[in-house]
Amino acid sequence: MLASAVENAGEGIGILNQDWILTYANTALARTLGQAKPADILGRHWQSFCDPSNLDQHASILATLQQKAR
Q1: Rounded to an integer, what distance in angstroms lies between the CA atom of residue 38 and that of residue 6?
Q2: Which residues on neighbouring strands pair with residue 15, listed in sequence order?
Q3: What total number of domains does the chain contain?
Q4: Residue pLDDT tens, the chain, 70 long
């Protein structure tokens, strides 16, 4: 039931592993990132979805989130 709710959510949902590689994505996230299906984006590093001019800002945000999760 939870898996179905996540997959059918209108918002993009993804899971990154400890190496910041996308290991799960629902269809909404794939479409947000310009792809038709989740399989098209799995296995990619989060930075591959970012504008290179914003990588420092994104890295800073993720570092903050990682510290708060500990």
Answers
A1: 13
A2: 24
A3: 1
A4: 888 988 889 999 999 998 889 999 999 999 999 999 999 999 999 889 888 888 788 888 878 877 877 6
